[in-house]
Amino acid sequence: MAYPMQLGFQDATSPIMEELLHFHDHTLMIVFLISSLVLYIISLMLTTKLTHTSTMDAQEVETIWTILPAMILIMIALPSLRILYMMDEINNPSLTVKTMGHQWYWSYEYTDYEDLSFDSYMIPTPELKPGELRLLEVDNRVVLPMEMTIRMLISSEDVLHSWAVPSLGLKTDAIPGRLNQTTLMSTRPGLFYG
């Protein structure tokens, strides 16, 4: 759960979100190093009156500033592709939940069991109890087992929706007439908002 004035991400609940957090830190460090180098070069150019004229036509410098950014992009792209393929991987799910987005609520159906479906409506602001969160509390929560692979089938009946749980690293669009699929696995128990 995010807190007021929080600067970072929510605590990771799934292995995918842990990988995404590591990738974020990896990329942020690269961006920080590049920004520091550029700032140093700019400050050096502004404070130094001396220029080395032979570097203006140097073939070696042009080769370096072409190859170095390509290597940096590869250092960012390879971990990104690995995580992207991990997110699309389906590992023999133990449970399947069908999620349908409606104009003002979500419908859930546990397809592995007969007649186990319900609607989840947001609780109106005047009916909230102290400590409950506005626009996040619902009357029927989805209950899922932890440390089991769960397949979510997500679609919509009327308009575009977005089914997201940030601490699980999930965000899937619910599009009318299209069935999207995502996999999740929670490594710890808790109440996760999305």
TrEMBL record:
SUPFAM superfamilies of this UniProt entry? Cupredoxins (SSF49503), Cytochrome c oxidase subunit II-like, transmembrane region (SSF81464)
Query: Which reaction equations make up its catalytic activity?
Result: 4 Fe(II)-[cytochrome c] + O2 + 8 H(+)(in) = 4 Fe(III)-[cytochrome c] + 2 H2O + 4 H(+)(out)
One of the record's GO cellular component terms: mitochondrial inner membrane
The record gives the membrane topology as: Multi-pass membrane protein
Q: How is the cofactor bound?
A: Binds a copper A center.
- Principal localization reads mitochondrion
Q: Which Gene3D superfamilies match?
A: 1.10.287.90, Cupredoxins - blue copper proteins (2.60.40.420)
Going by the UniProt record, its keywords in alphabetical order are: Copper, Electron transport, Magnesium, Membrane, Metal-binding, Mitochondrion, Mitochondrion inner membrane, Respiratory chain, Translocase, Transmembrane, Transmembrane helix, Transport
Q: Tell me where in this chain the Cytochrome oxidase subunit II copper A binding domain is found.
A: 92-194
InterPro entries linked = CcO_II (IPR045187), CcO_II-like_C (IPR002429), CcO_II_C (IPR034210), Cupredoxin (IPR008972), Cyt_c_oxidase_su2_TM_dom (IPR011759), Cyt_c_oxidase_su2_TM_sf (IPR036257)
Output the GO biological process annotations, alphabetical, semicolon-separated: ATP synthesis coupled electron transport
- CDD domains according to UniProt: CcO_II_C
Give every Cytochrome oxidase subunit II transmembrane region profile domain span: 1-91
Which subcellular locations apply to this protein? Mitochondrion inner membrane
- Where do the TM regions start and end? 27-46, 66-85
- Give this protein's Gene Ontology molecular function annotations: copper ion binding; cytochrome-c oxidase activity
Cofactor(s) needed for function: Cu cation
Q: Which PANTHER family match?
A: CYTOCHROME C OXIDASE SUBUNIT 2, CYTOCHROME C OXIDASE, SUBUNIT II
Q: What does this protein do?
A: Component of the cytochrome c oxidase, the last enzyme in the mitochondrial electron transport chain which drives oxidative phosphorylation. The respiratory chain contains 3 multisubunit complexes succinate dehydrogenase (complex II, CII), ubiquinol-cytochrome c oxidoreductase (cytochrome b-c1 complex, complex III, CIII) and cytochrome c oxidase (complex IV, CIV), that cooperate to transfer electrons derived from NADH and succinate to molecular oxygen, creating an electrochemical gradient over the inner membrane that drives transmembrane transport and the ATP synthase.
Per the record, the similarity remark reads: Belongs to the cytochrome c oxidase subunit 2 family.
Query: Can you say what this protein is called?
Result: Cytochrome c oxidase subunit 2
Q: Which organism is it from?
A: Pseudois nayaur (Bharal)
Gene for this chain? COII
